[in-house]
């Protein structure tokens, strides 16, 4: 999952209510006559030789990480396509995208999160995205799961993912060595190390308790380590979120907060503060996404990485495709052939290698060369497990968003010891809608 700032599940009704407020009472809705209809990719083009400008929205929340690679990617694309200019702005977040959808004023291209949430399929349903199925994009380098990420009802709607997102424990090797610690072989050894660090007066793990998404990363990392089989059973309708293994996941997070493993003032700390605490040696570790690897490398600390091991020592990590390079085309673009060329370039090895060299993401395609040994270190795990947010999204309905409840209710209450892990699991189970068994 990219710090990717996963977009919350939105229905047409909810989107309309929120955006009526944001737009001062604009009465048009995604399902109204103002909504676009998907067009044939070959239906519009510019006269031969004319200069075309494509307006592209980048991920505002990850501008610090993405600005350098996209400058290089866009320059390389323009060099190969001198008649196309890329006007790339870091203008997209949840609010700006929703406003653009409501006002029917999308840019030519913008980033999407594929099948990680229901947002892309909702946009497809309401005619906002260009169907790329007949665009003849080269998909030969990609496997079925990568194609599925971009597919809705058997049709392709975005450039394909080529990197893997997960959460790891970034740790300061100097602090660990000073306290006689190494990479833990199992869960008990991991917890014993945290106790030892706390006793030595070192905050074991920096946590951004103030930031809704960043405070959730430990839960996202713990869930597959503790309860991957239980989560999978719930997703398939063969089990429930009240499974003891899932309750133990939530309880472990509460225990970390209660035992002081996150420090004294973590509830008031944002992500910038948590990262500063780690990179300046105030904290021994931080649990964060692989998408932020470059940030920690740039700090200059003696950096190490490891996935959280379970009780048996198995390293099962949360997995999801990175959305750093997955872009869709607005159905209303006037330059669909040129936009498709840009998406084809993003789906190619040249652009992907530029991204890898700048960010050090974990590649999923063999012809992308890992940036360094640190990238290889992030890829050392035993099994790619499920993304808990994505699973809870599957169990949600327009009337009860289970993923949103985890983020906004359950995690905050766990951090303050207002509920137990078992109670948190019960809260989620009560509003979950499990698939019917045939």
From TrEMBL:
Residues 1-22 form the signal peptide. The keyword ATP-binding does not apply. Residues 28-50 are annotated as: Disordered. Residues 28-49 have a biased composition (Low complexity). Keywords: Signal, Transport. The keyword Signal applies. Belongs to the bacterial solute-binding protein 1 family. This is ABC transporter substrate-binding protein. The lineage of its organism: Bacteria, Bacillati, Bacillota, Bacilli, Bacillales.
């Amino acid at each position: 999952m990219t710090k990717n700032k996963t977009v919350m599940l939105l229905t047409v009704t909810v989107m309309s209510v929120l955006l009526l407020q944001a737009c001062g009472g604009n009465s048009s809705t995604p399902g109204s006559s103002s909504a676009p209809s998907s067009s044939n990719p070959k239906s519009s083009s510019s006269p031969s030789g004319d200069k075309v400008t494509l307006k592209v929205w980048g991920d505002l929340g990850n501008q610090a990480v993405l600005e350098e690679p996209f400058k290089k990617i866009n320059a390389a694309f323009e060099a190969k396509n001198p008649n196309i200019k890329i006007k790339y702005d870091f203008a997209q977040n949840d609010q700006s995208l929703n406003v653009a959808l409501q006002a029917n004023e999308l840019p030519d291209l913008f980033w999407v999160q594929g099948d990680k949430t229901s947002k892309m399929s909702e946009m497809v349903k309401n005619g906002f995205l260009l169907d790329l199925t007949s665009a003849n994009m080269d998909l030969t380098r990609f496997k079925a799961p990568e194609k599925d990420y971009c597919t809705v009802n058997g049709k392709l709607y975005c450039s394909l993912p080529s990197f893997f997102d997960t959460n790891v424990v970034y740790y300061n090797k100097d602090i660990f060595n000073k306290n006689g610690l190494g990479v833990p072989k199992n869960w008990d050894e991991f917890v014993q190390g945290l106790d030892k660090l706390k006793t030595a007066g070192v905050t074991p793990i920096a946590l951004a308790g103030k930031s809704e998404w960043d405070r959730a990363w430990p839960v996202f990392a713990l869930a597959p380590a503790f309860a991957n089989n239980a989560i999978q059973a719930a997703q398939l309708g063969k089990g429930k979120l009240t499974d003891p293994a899932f309750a133990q996941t939530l309880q472990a997070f509460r225990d970390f907060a209660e035992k002081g493993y996150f420090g004294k003032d973590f509830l008031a700390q944002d992500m910038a503060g948590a990262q500063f605490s780690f990179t300046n040696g105030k904290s021994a570790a931080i649990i964060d996404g692989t998408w932020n690897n470059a940030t920690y490398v740039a700090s200059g600390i003696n950096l190490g990485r490891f996935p959280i091991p379970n009780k048996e020592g198995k390293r099962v990590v949360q997995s999801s495709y990175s959305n750093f390079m997955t872009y869709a085309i607005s159905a209303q673009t006037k330059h669909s052939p040129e936009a498709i060329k840009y998406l084809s370039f993003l789906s190619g090895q040249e652009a992907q290698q530029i991204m890898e060299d700048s960010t050090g993401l974990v590649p999923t395609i063999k012809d992308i060369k890992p940036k360094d040994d640190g990238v290889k270190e992030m890829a050392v795990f035993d099994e790619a497990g499920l993304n808990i947010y994505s699973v809870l999204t599957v169990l949600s309905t327009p009337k009860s968003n289970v993923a949103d409840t985890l983020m906004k209710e359950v995690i905050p209450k766990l951090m303050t010891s207002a509920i137990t892990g078992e109670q948190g699991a019960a809260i989620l189970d009560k509003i979950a809608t499990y698939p019917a068994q045939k």
